[in-house]
Design goal:
Blueprint lengths: L1 H19 L3 E2 L6 E2 L9 H25 E2 L1 H29 L3 H7 L5 H20 L5 H8 L2 H10 L2 E3 L3 E2 H4 L3 H28 L4 E2 L1
Parallel strand pairs: 3-6
Antiparallel strand pairs: 1-2, 4-5
Length: about 210
């Protein structure tokens, strides 16, 4: 459990550190990092780490609600109910804070063509989540929670085409075509295998677990 917590915190810290920007010197050949190495301890990366943890906790409680029955399902239901607003507020906080970090982010995140659909989608997902808990549609809360990755999708949209904000674009940071082809072949072989054994695992342990 401690390992999973550390991994989740690290994901949030990495995302927050990249979003706030990498300190570099364009005067050096090809650019050179000239930060302290402690940028990940600033408020925004730490906030992103907390948001990640809350999101994963919410997903975990929804998954348990879907897969279990009895007292464990009851506890998972109550946990999911109070974790949901916390996770949504924190993810919204990440989006709002990110828009203040960089003019490029603000220009993209605050578009009138983007905000209403994103807000409507989040509201619809929360309604779906509440209905799933109230009407005992056990899979719906998990579907709604998974849909909330829209918040992190907005972050990817805000950053694009930057890959190491605000220094390098995706094209500048890309590997050589030969390397990309090598990785593509590897994915083409291993992704179907991974999907197959995961599908087998889910089918083997299908059904409710009483706890």
């Amino acid at each position: 459990m401690l390992g999973k917590l550390i991994a989740t915190l690290a994901q949030g810290l990495i995302m927050g550190t990249l979003l706030q920007g990498i300190t570099w010197s364009p005067a050096a050949i090809g650019g050179q990092f000239n930060g302290s190495g402690w940028e990940w301890l600033r408020p925004f990366p730490l906030f992103c780490a907390v948001a990640h943890v809350s999101g994963y906790l919410w997903l975990g409680s929804c998954w348990l609600y879907w897969r279990t029955q009895g007292p464990l399902q009851g506890r998972s239901k109550s946990q999911a109910a109070w974790l949901a607003p916390i996770a949504v507020v924190l993810v919204a906080g990440v989006v709002a804070w990110a828009s203040m970090l960089n003019e490029h982010y603000a220009e993209r995140l605050l578009q009138l063509s983007l905000l209403p659909p994103a807000t409507g989608l989040v509201a619809a997902l929360m309604v779906l989540f509440a209905l799933g808990l109230r009407r005992r549609r056990d899979a719906l809360p998990l579907v709604a929670a998974l849909g909330m990755v829209v918040g992190f999708g907005l972050m990817a949209y805000a950053v694009f085409p930057l890959i190491v904000p605000p220094a390098l674009t995706l094209a500048q940071a890309a590997a050589k075509p030969r390397t990309q082809l090598f990785v593509l072949v590897g994915f083409a072989v291993w992704v179907p295998i991974t999907l197959a054994y995961n599908t087998f695992g889910f089918s083997l342990f299908a059904g409710k677990i009483r706890g």
